[in-house]
Design brief:
The chain is α+β, with helices and mostly antiparallel strands. The chain has 9 helices and 6 strands. The N terminus is likely disordered.
């Protein structure tokens, strides 16, 4: 029974090992995909993003609305025709009517001369609404560029981790071969060989796991770029420590002038001021000029003609208290929008300071992991040298190997985390406009 159990476990171990080897070598084959650089990714997402296309259509609608506000400044021409049948023709003002059918036609041209600023306020309000939507488009672009940058650097980092884990596998393989060679000459134990083989198999499993993580990160990027899942694209670039020398004071000054959400709120304040002007125009008279021609008689094409010119003056004397309180409400809306602008600026300052400190922390992490990698490399080389001459044991060598692999991986993680932190700092400060 014991032998059967041992054989069963051995067969299972061999099956797992064969599957891992098959997966490992399949993942090691070149994929021959197209390369995606950061610049290519940013350019493509700005061309294909559904969010941006939706906002562009919204801007078109506001542009059409703005163009339509010219109508009240233009003269209005109307033509009207009517037919009337009198059921009792003898009873009519001015005496008896010889027929029961009366046809009338009138044409008029009217032009509003003065309206207290109503038309101007409506036109400027539409203009600021259009500008507000354009600022929103820039804000969406800023967000989308940030999302693509983080997805790209994450995918690039995961790809680099795959490379580092392959290096770790090759190192574990060399340790296994060294241990096996020492066992064959009688200076190492069988358990040392088994432990080295376990380390090599674990490194192989790590490669398979890292490749899966990279593929999932790559799918996130491809989804943002609207690429099909089966597309054979690969990220291309060198993952390195980012450099950024600007101080946060300058970043804040730039952001307060250039960030779209600030411009958006300023447009909103101007738009609300035009709403106030609309409410105020209700207190002013309306003056209209009109030229009118009327024709009326009993024939289908009437001959009786009257030409008139009218100048209409309308002034609301009293219509309740609504006009006054509407103006007060519009004033409160303007004041509220101004306070909202100051709150936006306060949040921008806080976002930039926190993002700047986070970025500096990631740079320090890169430096520390660089130093840790140097120490781990020295420790591993020393452990290999001692084991080769018989002064060290396999456990110390395997531990040094694992620490070296982890140090390499931690450095990669710190570098792509630092690049992501810089991307966020650029987003909140609206920096690096050349990639837009």
């Amino acid at each position: 029974m014991i032998n059967h159990g041992v054989n069963h476990r051995s067969v299972l171990y061999m099956v797992i090992k064969i599957w891992l080897l098959t997966s490992f070598f399949a993942l090691s084959l070149p994929r021959y995909g197209l390369s995606i650089t950061l610049e290519d990714a940013v350019k493509r997402v700005l061309d294909v993003s559904y969010v941006l296309k939706e906002q562009q259509e919204t801007i078109k609608r506001t542009e059409f609305s703005y163009l339509s506000t010219i109508d009240p400044y233009l003269p209005q021409a109307n033509l009207q025709s009517s037919y009337t049948r009198y059921l009792n023709p003898r009873l009519s003002t001015g005496g008896l009517i010889t027929g029961q059918d009366v046809f009338s036609t009138s044409g008029s041209i009217s032009l509003r001369l003065f309206d207290g600023g109503l038309r101007s306020a409506q036109r400027m309000g539409s203009y600021h609404l259009m500008g507000r939507e354009k600022e929103k488009l820039e804000s969406l672009k800023n967000d989308i560029v940030y999302n693509v940058k983080t997805a790209f650097f994450t995918a690039l980092g995961k790809k680099t981790i795959v490379e580092k884990r392959k290096e770790a596998y090759e190192t574990a393989k060399r340790v296994f071969e060294l241990t096996k060679a020492r066992f064959e000459v009688g200076v190492a134990k069988k358990s040392d060989v088994l432990q080295a083989e376990v380390g090599m198999t674990s490194a192989m499993i790590d490669v398979v796991s890292a490749t899966s993580d990279y593929e999932k990160a790559l799918e996130d990027l491809k989804s943002l770029l609207l690429l099909e899942p089966e597309a054979k694209e690969e990220v291309e670039g060198i993952l390195s420590e980012p450099t950024f020398t600007e101080g946060y004071e300058r970043l804040i000054d730039r952001a307060l002038k250039a960030r779209p959400d600030v411009s958006y709120q300023m447009r909103e304040i101007e738009r609300l001021k035009t709403v106030y002007n609309e409410k105020r125009s209700l207190w002013f008279p309306k003056i209209d000029a009109q030229i009118l021609q009327q024709r009326q008689d009993s024939s289908m094409f009437p001959e009786g003609r009257q030409d008139m010119f009218m100048l209409n003056f309308t002034l609301p004397i009293f219509d309740g208290i609504g006009r006054y309180y509407s103006m007060q409400g519009a004033t409160s809306d303007v004041n509220a929008a101004k306070f909202r602008l100051e709150e936006i600026k306060r949040n921008i300052k806080l976002e930039i300071i926190k993002a700047y400190k986070d970025y500096l922390l990631t740079i320090e992490n890169v430096k520390m992991y660089n130093e840790l990698l140097k120490q781990a490399t020295t420790n591993f080389e020393q452990a290999v040298g001692e084991y080769r001459v018989g002064k060290g044991d396999i456990l110390a060598l395997l531990q040094a190997e694992r620490e070296l692999a982890k140090a390499k991986e931690n450095l990669v993680v710190s570098m792509y985390t630092s690049n992501n932190a810089l991307a966020y700092l650029q987003k909140v400060s609206y920096w690096n406009g050349d990639l837009r």
